[in-house]
Amino acid sequence: MLPQFRLILHQLPKPSFVLEAATMSTSSFTLVQSNLPCTVNLPSNLTEQQLLKFTAFKNWISTLQHSLSLQASKQHTFHASPYKLRKIDVQAVDYFGGERIGFIKLQAEISNDEGEKLPGAVFLRGGSVGMLVSPPYI
After folding, report:
1. Residues 68/84, Cβ–Cβ less than 8 Å
2. pLDDT of residue 26
3. Is 135 helix (H, G, I), strand (E, B) or coil?
4. Count of structural domains, the chain
């Protein structure tokens, strides 16, 4: 004969805490070096001066501006409806050694007047990056 087990359910108390959404204060400025002035939204741990001095950002924005300026040529594929940088949202910043920027993740809004958009996810890094590669485990 098998023993019988009884399952007794106890009513657990409801949690007494409330989850609150974390808010990240942001600031913004207008990037006037763009083909059209565009808004740049920054997280609370990054200033306009830090972003504009970050070499990877300077290289990216100048390359993008050059590429967009090529649309002025009548032979360019997008001449009839050129793409424009409209907004930049800096989503994350990682620092190395306190104040030196290591990585920046941003989302750029690049579209034409017809509403067509180009992908705008950008990951910027400074200097060189080291990677520790470990052998596979057997």
Report:
1. yes
2. 80
3. coil
4. 1
pLDDT at residue number 68: 93
Beta bridge partners of 124: 104
Range of the domain at 93: 28-125
Residue 33 tokens read as 């070096």
Q: What is the pLDDT, as a whole number, of residue 20? A: 37
- Say if 105 falls within a structural domain: yes
Under a CB-based contact definition with an 8 Å cutoff, are residues 72 and 79 in contact? yes
59 to each of 10, 25, 73, how far by Cα in Å? 62, 27, 23
pTM of the model: 0.73
The pair of three-digit structure tokens given for residue 64, joined into one six-digit string: 């993008």
Q: Tell me the residue ranges of DSSP E strands in the chain.
A: 26-31, 38-43, 84-96, 100-111, 117-118, 121-125
3-state SS assignment for residue 49: helix
The answer for residues whose C-beta is within 8 angstroms of residue 85's C-beta and 6 or more apart is 34, 35, 36, 38, 64, 65, 68, 108, 109, 110
Query: What's the Rg (C-alpha) of the chain?
Result: 25
Q: Please, are residues 39 and 30 in contact by the beta-carbon 8 Å criterion?
A: yes
Residue 133 domain-assigned (yes or no): no
